[in-house]
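pinned: reference chain
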Amino acid sequence: MRSVGTLILAIAVAGCARARPGDRSPLIRATTTMVTAWQLPLNPLEDKSLDQSPLAEQIRWGYQLFTATPKYAPQFVGGGMACANCHLNAGQRERALPLVGVAGMFPEYNARAARLITLADRVVDCFLRSENATGRSVDDLPTPTSKEVLALSAYISWLAKGQTVGQNPDWRGKNTIATAQLLPIDKLDRVRGEAIFKEQCTQCHGEDGQGKPIGGPVPHSEKKAGPLWGDGSWNDGAGASRVYTLAGIIRYTMPYLNPGGLSDEDAQHVAAFITGQPRPAFPFKEHDYSKSKVPVDAVYYPKR
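pinned: its structure tokens
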């Protein structure tokens, strides 16, 4: 009997091999508003082609883990963040860190880790940083063979069906602000960013940044915007703790009632405000960027 890990690799390779050049984007458009927040081009809970095999069950569970991480993996979540709080529409929205087709790019080199990483390594990293697993315990952390990590890998691999192995999807990396438009970190205005935040973002995130219930159809009626700072948020080793990274996310996904409504400059000021707020500390930052310079926007890292 093949292991779940072997089956995951099988669907990633076999599914990706069916890609057809020129196919239309399978993603929810970046310009659509919150009314499409619950739309999914691919939903394993509704896909009739998925049977009752162990792999299909793992794909379905991986989707549930992705969309309600604190509920289904509480031992690895130190706060209130779910994968889908950053990867909107369950990883299927343009310019919102989409994961469709990404599985076929692993293993790939990661500058922060200074080595090749697998898809499972990347999922573990998200648990440790974006989900702040280290805030719950440093003795019982997720590993590449944890059942939750394998299930999430199964879902992400399933999203790669029909895509080409080894070829970056056209939509990957589109949630960044052009280098020429980036302002120096010391020129960013947190006070201005706070003012923009209060005007544009509090309807969903609240003035305290902890997120408000935004409702939605069953089973999303308890959906809530994720906490942007404080104990329930991502920790300071997460990608979203980098100013330019967060600014790119804000620029193309927010405000959710008018995505893309902020300018490049305003998105950076808002990001500077958010990354200036307290958040959990990632305890292993000294191991990051061991073979490269710490990025200038990684403001929580000591200069070295």
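why pinned: Strands lie at 108-110, 115-117. The CA atoms of residues 15 and 161 lie 4 Å apart.
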